[in-house]
Amino acid sequence: MKVFVTGVCGQLGYDVVNELSKRGYEAVGSDIFEKDKLSEGFSAAYKQLDITDKDSTASVIESVKPDVVVHCAAWTAVDAAEDEENKEKVYSINADGTRNIALACKKINCKMIYISTDYVFDGEGTTPWRPDCKDYAPLCVYGDSKLKGEAAVSGLLEKFFIVRIAWVFGKNGNNFIKTMLKVGKKFDTIRVVNDQIGTPTYTLDLSRLLVDMCESEKYGYYHATNEGGYISWYDFTKEIFKQAGYTTKVVPVSTEEYGLSKAKRPHNSRLDKSKLTENGFELLPVWQDALSRYLKEIEY
């Protein structure tokens, strides 16, 4: 099996390529950057690609002839997406770029796995969002652009997986854990929101599931985060500091009290993952264990 992976300079794409290589599959990675921007340990062929260029995207994917495309590339800077000068670029990457990939997949009749987000929902209530729920109401530009990407994939293809994830952390990039470790080392006390509820997702664990999906034909919408129950960012931070051996005091505050974000974020990021089990996929390990393994991986 040959798999084309976009966004390999990011957290998830990097891990997906390495998981594919580990299983003996042929992986071809891509990103917008020159090859010298790739992280140490990258173990596959590489094609530089700007997914917003429709003709180039079609040409590259047609030349590779993959059995599956795993589309991890995205604009993920949620607050910066709200800036007027960035909005056009956000949509060109997350919506138009995704459509370009879907069109290329359709032309060569290959599977596509699109990584989406809990931000496609309005985040109200306390009920976990089911993967086949269509009550979309994104609160910000990022969420809306990712929803438009979903629509492109589902509208053009039959052989697709749309996998929504949340609270992502991995070795190859910046994330909440790395930020907390930095500020926890610098300050005696920090404030963290406690009214946004969800579950973290470790890219190393997620990459294994995505490769399982590459091997499958159980197409459709899925939700995937680590197990271990729903928590707040405050709860997550407390566990990060506990496992890291920090004595930093964590003060719980509401999103309104915190008040620093440009983008409106969902309060309810609970994702129902039962469809994974229903279709024979293995659930991700509990997030507490994922955090422990991650801290060892990054050698903070």
Structure description:
The chain is of the alpha/beta class. The protein has one domain (2-172, 199-227, 271-285): NAD(P)-binding Rossmann-like Domain (Rossmann fold), CATH 3.40.50. Helices cover 40% and strands 20% of the residues. It contains 10 helices and 15 strands. It has helices at residues 11-22, 54-64, 84-108, 141-156, 176-186, 203-214, 233-244, 255-258, 274-278, 287-298; strands at 2-6, 26-31, 45-48, 68-71, 111-117, 160-165, 168-169, 189-193, 197-198, 201-202, 220-223, 226-227, 231-232, 249-253, 284-286. Strands 3-2-1-4-5-6-11 form a 7-stranded parallel beta sheet, with helices on both faces. Helix 1 (11-22) packs across helix 6, helix 2 runs parallel beside helix 3 and helix 7 (233-244) crosses helix 10. The two termini are 36 Å apart. The model has no long low-confidence stretch (mean pLDDT 94).
